[in-house]
Design brief:
Layout (H helix, E strand, L loop, with lengths): L1 H18 L4 H60 L3 H26 L10 H21 L23 H17 L1
């Protein structure tokens, strides 16, 4: 409301200034009034900005207060919930649960184990017996081949002979091999 009146006054003073151009004194007074109104307008605008800033600061402070209050409620609720709890009791409870789970697993294993099936046999002995049976079958198959199997002929030509190395050359080759091995 104040802002609207100020703008109207400034506009009116500008119109008056144009009409009374010939009257210096009145024009000078109107110009002074216009400057005063502009200064007041700037002050009011600054005041409104300050009030707006303060309003936002108060809203933030109120929000922070509510957050702190709620955090206090949460801390009290957590404390009340933990008052009935003792870390030693929690550890005991967890150990009891672990023991019961282990007992349940043992019972489950005992129930699922077949009774009287395969318990009297040692697996290593069974594997050894299986290998022995396989070997007997292989021997039997080899013996059944008989004499009727055609064998290849012995070559009639002699193989080319390589010149024999001297003992010294062999020793040198062995030393070179040993040196190469030691270098690695």
């Amino acid at each position: 409301m104040v802002m609207t009146n100020m703008y109207v006054m400034i506009f009116d003073s500008g119109t008056f200034l144009q009409k009374s151009f010939k009257q210096n004194e009145a024009a000078l007074q109107a110009l002074k009034r216009k400057k005063r109104y502009e200064k007041q307008l700037a002050q009011i605008d600054g005041t409104l900005s300050t009030i707006e800033f303060q309003r936002e600061a108060l809203e933030n402070a109120h929000t922070n207060t509510e957050v702190i209050k709620n955090m206090g409620y949460a801390a009290k609720a957590m404390k009340a919930a933990h008052d009935n709890m003792d870390i030693d009791k929690v550890d005991e409870l967890m150990q009891d649960i672990t023991e019961q789970q282990e007992l349940a697993q043992e019972i489950s294993d005992a129930i699922s184990k077949p009774v009287g099936f395969g318990e009297e046999f040692d697996e290593d002995e069974l594997l050894a017996e299986l290998e022995e049976l396989e070997q007997e079958e292989l021997d039997k198959n080899l013996l059944e081949i008989g004499d009727n199997v055609p064998l290849p002929n012995v070559p009639s030509t002699s193989l080319p002979s390589r010149p024999a190395k001297k003992k010294e050359e062999e020793d040198e080759d062995d030393m070179k091999d040993l040196e190469a091995w030691a270098a690695n």
